[in-house]
Automatic annotation (TrEMBL):
It comes from Saccharopolyspora montiporae. The keyword Disulfide bond does not apply. The keyword Nucleotide-binding applies. InterPro entries: Cas10-Cmr2_palm2 (IPR054767), Rev_trsase/Diguanyl_cyclase (IPR043128). Pfam families: Cas10-Cmr2_palm2. This is Cas10/Cmr2 second palm domain-containing protein. Gene3D superfamilies: 3.30.70.270.
């Protein structure tokens, strides 16, 4: 048995969205990468070889320092742990950390055991508070810092680290600091060497990449793999049965997430575009937080969900693990005006995602959505949709999206009256019977996530395609 110690940034979404501005989040996502990168951690482990080494089996996951322990000298282990947490704390003063200690015959085996946890929570703001930080409004500002084109801002130490690591996206690839967006462009270039791209620099620019130049709405998308623990368990069991087999599980998840994300972006990007319609906040393992123009969200998410399971199935098959079923990924979309703070929308997407996963017990790729502009700040309680249901309704959704806005409004009004006969007549009048060939009771069923009213809500942010 070997002991493993993972030191990780926890409650990442919460910390990322502490600063409401994009620059603050961009810097935060760079910091997470930097703080836990193998190259950054290696010097800290020099001289500690007899205590611990980086666990290469765990792969590279942003926000996690995975260690394999080489001693049972608890005092020395605690010293190293403290030193690594201090390193994380220096870069991310307001983030929360947690270390998890587990034993196992391998890293994968250890992942299946219940860990012994140690929490390193974020320090609370000192009291009495001086002038509040212009960005997070949570801690005291203790320095005036020039912040991009915004002039000077009074920032706390956490937000100062963020702006120092934010970089600029507009100048393209070379000027981007290593971070999620740099990774995205690297991976895009690797796949499409003849289609150089940049990423938008701010939310208004991102919104304008939607349907029209005056588009103002964004989709905050949070996706997360389903039942990954179960997947680990089954992989481990299959590997134990046949010693000739080998499988890099973290590597396969990372590959599936990124490849599916690129598939989604490719589908959501115009063929002649030189800018990707996305701001990537976090891509870590099977966990993804992104902003896209509202009209690009559905196409993107559906491709992401399809791709994730397909790529994992491919990797499993290549490794001879044909009996292990690939997990799926669930996603939530919050539609909102670009001026609406991302932190609130990331929270909303998070809430929708948890509910969707519970609804389907993590056994199906579920998709939840909420339109903050048209439905208000609170989730409506609408059930989530399964990916295969979206696929089955794609033609119907496309047809509805193709109707003039006034016609859609009118149809929605009839759906609200729940007058089945009137609805059937209207569908006939609009020449939609070919595509919308469901019973009116099904179209009006409140429990149906793809009832007509919900579909009309979905196609408000739809981009017709030839699928
Ligand atoms: Zn601050």
């Amino acid at each position: 048995m070997t002991d493993f110690l993972d030191i990780a940034v926890v409650r990442i979404q919460r910390w990322l969205s502490r600063a409401p501005h994009l620059r603050g989040r961009r810097g935060a996502s760079t910091l997470i990468r930097k703080a836990t990168a193998a190259g950054e951690v290696a010097p800290l482990l020099v001289g500690w070889e007899e205590v611990a080494e980086r666990c290469t089996e765990a792969g590279q996951i942003d926000g996690v320092i995975p260690l394999r322990l080489n001693t049972d000298d608890e005092e020395r282990i605690a010293q190293l742990e403290k030193q690594l947490v201090a390193h994380l704390r220096a870069l991310m003063p307001a983030a929360s950390f947690e270390s998890k200690r587990r034993s196992g015959t391998s890293w994968l085996d250890a992942q299946l055991r219940t860990p012994v946890r140690t929490e390193w929570p974020a320090p609370t703001a000192e009291w009495p508070l001086g002038k509040r930080c212009d960005w997070c409004a949570e801690w005291s500002a203790n320095e005036q810092v020039p912040v991009g084109s915004d002039g000077k801002k009074a920032l706390c130490i956490d937000c100062r680290q963020r702006t120092a690591h934010a970089g600029y996206a507009t100048s393209g690839h070379a000027d981007l600091q290593p971070g999620t967006e740099r990774d995205l462009l690297d991976r895009w270039t690797e796949r499409f060497p003849d289609r150089p791209m940049r990423v938008p620099d701010d939310f208004p620019e991102l919104a304008r990449l939607g349907e029209t130049d005056d588009a103002t709405h964004l989709a905050t998308i949070h996706a997360d793999g389903n039942a990954i623990g179960q997947f680990r368990y089954e992989t481990h069991r299959a590997l134990r049965k046949d010693a000739r087999l080998d499988f890099d599980l973290p590597g396969a998840i990372q590959h599936a997430t990124w490849s599916a994300l690129l598939d989604g972006l490719q589908a959501a990007t115009d063929p002649d575009a030189d800018i990707l319609p996305v701001i990537a906040h976090l891509v870590g393992g099977d966990d993804v937080l992104l902003s896209l123009p509202a009209h690009r969200a559905w196409t993107f998410v559906v491709e992401l969900q399809r791709g994730f399971s397909n790529y994992l199935t491919e990797s499993l098959t290549a490794a001879g693990l044909t009996k292990v079923p690939a997990p799926s990924i669930s996603a939530a979309i919050a539609f909102h005006h670009y001026t609406h703070p991302l932190s609130a929308n990331a929270d909303l997407a998070d809430e929708l995602l948890s509910a969707a996963k519970k609804e389907h017990f993590g056994s199906a790729p579920a998709l939840a959505w909420h339109d903050r502009t048209h439905e208000g700040p609170q989730p409506s309680g609408r059930p989530s949709i399964r990916l295969d249901q979206v696929g089955a309704h794609w033609a119907e959704l496309n047809a509805l999206a193709g109707l003039p806005q006034s016609t859609r409004k009118n149809l929605a009004a009839i759906a609200r009256t729940e007058d089945g006969q009137r609805l059937a007549d209207q569908i006939k009048r609009l020449g939609l019977t070919e595509v919308v060939h469901r019973q009116v009771t099904d179209l009006l069923n409140r429990e149906n996530p793809l009832n007509l009213a919900n579909e009309l809500g979905m196609v408000r942010w739809w981009r017709g395609d030839a699928r």
